[in-house]
Design goal:
mainly alpha, MetI-like fold, 1% strand
Length: 322
């Protein structure tokens, strides 16, 4: 037995001990180097945990409480009853549907318009830099200011530009925000998010190899065939990425709804953030509002994680194929 162990175990020599010491030192240096690289990120990580994760833990706690601020001493443990009440709430379901319509409609229209503008700006023409700067401007306007512009300048029933432009076509003094509250809010959001989609798609266009397009043109392919067979498949990843990022940010839309419609009439233009705000700060129902916030956050995380995984697989798969 001792002979077999001796045959298997390598002899301990000064060279092997020295190699083991050097290996241990290299591992220690690599760990120290890793911490040295991560060190500058620690303050940002701590700040993010304090600002986002600790409040979310408190939200989880409040979502299990029955607590209304207008009834002192009403706070008590309620289990999961708040979540049951949330899914039974017909207004919550209506607001969730409004949120989905707002996000999907805004993203689709913004991507379509952004694609058209990106194709335009990908061509060389006089004043392209000025046009590109002007088209980016809406994305730089603060959401509150943009909502006020659309409410007072564009949609005003008496002095609005939309009624002024449509007046020769027989359109009278239409109160667009009262009659069409959800499309009015979506118009403001499309105006703001189209430049973002345009920039992302334009970056994809400019990353496309020109020699492939030239070879296809030499082979006799027309403009529509080039776009359908080469340009659009190349832009698919950028369009998907823009759609996911836009949807994640649009879930948090509060400014436009608050400034333009205040969620009305009824809940016709209300979305989840504004409805949660109403429950918490107008209805003072902390438990219900916290439960709604948790449901919204969890649903957003699940959907965005699945979408981002698909997009990252698309990017990595293309890179490996290249």
């Amino acid at each position: 037995m001792s002979q077999s162990v001796a045959e298997v175990a390598p002899p301990s020599t000064p060279e092997s001990r020295k190699a083991a010491v050097l290996k241990s030192k290299r591992q220690h240096i690599s760990r120290a180097e890793g911490w040295r690289r991560r060190g500058p990120l620690l303050p940002a990580l701590i700040f993010m945990i304090v600002v986002t994760q600790i409040p979310f833990v408190f939200t989880l706690y409040y979502s299990t409480q029955s607590w209304n601020l207008v009834r002192p001493g009403s706070q008590k443990f309620n289990g999961l009853n708040n979540y049951v009440d949330v899914f039974k709430d017909s207004q919550f379901r209506s607001v969730a549907l409004n949120t989905v319509i707002m996000i999907v409609g805004t993203v689709i229209i913004s991507v379509f318009l952004g694609l058209l503008l990106a194709l335009l700006l990908d061509r060389k023409f006089l004043g392209r830099g000025i046009v590109r700067t002007l088209l980016i401007t809406p994305f730089l306007v603060t959401p509150v200011a943009a909502a006020l512009i659309w409410k007072t300048t564009m949609f005003d029933p008496v002095f609005g530009l939309i009624n002024f432009v449509l007046k020769p076509f027989g359109v009278g003094q239409v109160d667009w925000i009262s009659k069409y509250p959800l499309p009015a809010v979506m118009a403001d959001l499309v105006w703001q998010w189209t430049p973002f989609m345009m920039l992302l798609i334009l970056a994809g266009l400019q990353s496309m190899p020109r020699d492939i397009l030239e070879a296809a043109r030499v082979d006799g392919a027309g403009s529509f065939a080039l776009f359908r067979e080469l340009t659009l498949p190349h832009l698919r990843r950028f369009i998907e990425l823009g759609a996911v990022l836009g949807a994640v940010y649009l879930v948090n839309t509060f400014d436009a709804v608050y400034m333009m419609t205040s969620g009305g009439p009824g809940v016709a233009s209300s979305n989840l953030p504004y409805y949660i705000y109403q429950r918490a700060f107008l209805g003072f129902d902390i438990g219900q509002a916290a439960a709604m916030g948790v449901v919204t956050v969890v649903a957003t995380i699940i959907i965005s994680t699945l979408a981002l995984r698909l997009i990252f697989k698309s990017f990595s798969g293309t890179e490996e194929a290249a």
